[in-house]
């Protein structure tokens, strides 16, 4: 006798295997990942961006302030520059000297601007590796496989048949329903409605051999989830 459980979704015999359960599992994983990771990833991203930006800006400021310093040192070294400044650009000097000085100043300003543009470009082009660096500082840690919290999650210690899947553990409250309401045939199917994703609980992967513990039910099309939906009585 084949004791393999029927498909939890469509109730077809275990052989040949239908794709329902693995499809539902993929959906469930995706949704769980979203619930668990979305806000954390957003937080990490903000952190990485703000530190990368600050690092780039700091580097750019250092480059340009050195450049501006060299620029003003150079200007001060030009003949007639101090008298030029003293007379606000109209110094009583020979027009030839004045024209030469103005050309030197103008060229120095253009050179400074080119340098600043180059500094900025070089800084901004470093973003990919700077982002890599700050992302590399973020630590992701998986718990030890032997951790009691991993081996024995604080619910369904004897399998789901004993007390059902405690909805309140994941922030859903509810009261008990009869098992028959769990049958797919009794489930209202309203396709085409907007899926309330957080209400879609789906099965976990099926195993061959010993019947698996009852798993969270499927909600085709995302119909409203009765509280305590898969609580056995
Ligand atoms: Zn199936």
TrEMBL record:
Residues 162-233 are annotated as: Disordered. It comes from the Eukaryota. Residues 209-227 have a biased composition (Pro residues). Residues 163-173, 190-200 have a biased composition (Basic and acidic residues). This is Uncharacterized protein.
